[in-house]
Amino acid sequence: MTATDGPRSLRLAELDAHTFAAWLRDGSGTVLVPVGALEQHGPHLPLGTDAILSSRIAEAAAEATGSLVAQPVSYGYKSQQKSGGGNHLPGTVSLDAATLIGLTRNLVASLLRQGVRNVVFVNGHYENYQFLYEGIDLALADLGLRDGDGPAVLLLSYWDYVSEETLRTVYPEGFPGWDIEHGGVLETSLMLHLEPDLVDLGRAVDHPPAALPRFDRLPVVPGRTPASGCLSAPAGSDATKGGLLFRQVTGDLARDIAAELGGTPG
Ligand SMILES: [Zn+2]
């Protein structure tokens, strides 16, 4: 999309209603919804990291496919100790599952009812996924839509787009696993590439990966979360790795959206 052949912004919040209505008529009809959380990410990353990253990734994919990006969902489901350090930590402000399901259900129904053809949820907070899925499913049932009826909703978490080849470059000493990538090399490198002023590497703490049990225990045992709040250390993060991650993920995501839903190939 360029300034001459489409809306002047790809962010819905920055468009007027008449421009949006014209885009519904003439545009790709696909709206991306970034989803994140307000969650502690250690001493070196901001609380809004998940929504910042999903928004920037969604915007790049939207630009490549002639799509638009809705306001991000900036709060998420409760941080869990084995994937986010835990909901007990200061700075983590979360939604109950029923709230996130209801919010997702409302967003899908509202977007599709006014003529959006396809919706793509770009998730940036691990714990959200199944509740987004449920909200989408309930909205499609509310609207009476079944297989092959036309409108489609895609749901993805952006890290599922990181290729094996990229992983080998970003983690030359071996990938610790997605479950403990919280405040670690992936998020820190992406933030160093996209929002370096919001990262303070001087406050980053080096420590071994969190050793967490196979079970979830509630209430959590707070001492099982490393004192930094990160589940793996950000040591080895840099903006070059962030740039590689960003380009590879957004390129593959744009290609998927174009292939699945139509629109300008990325
Ligand atoms: Zn995160």
TrEMBL record:
Q: Which InterPro entries match?
A: Creatininase, Creatininase-like_sf, Creatininase/forma_Hydrolase
Enzyme class comes to hydrolase
- Cofactor field: Zn(2+)
Q: What is its EC number?
A: 3.5.2.10
Keyword annotations for this protein, in alphabetical order, are: Hydrolase, Metal-binding, Zinc
Which Pfam families does the entry link to? Creatininase
Any keyword Transmembrane helix? no
Q: Which GO terms describe its molecular function?
A: creatininase activity
Look up keyword Ligase and say if it applies.
no
- SUPFAM superfamilies referenced in this protein's UniProt entry, alphabetically: Creatininase
The similarity annotation says: Belongs to the creatininase superfamily.
Its name, as the record gives it, is Creatininase
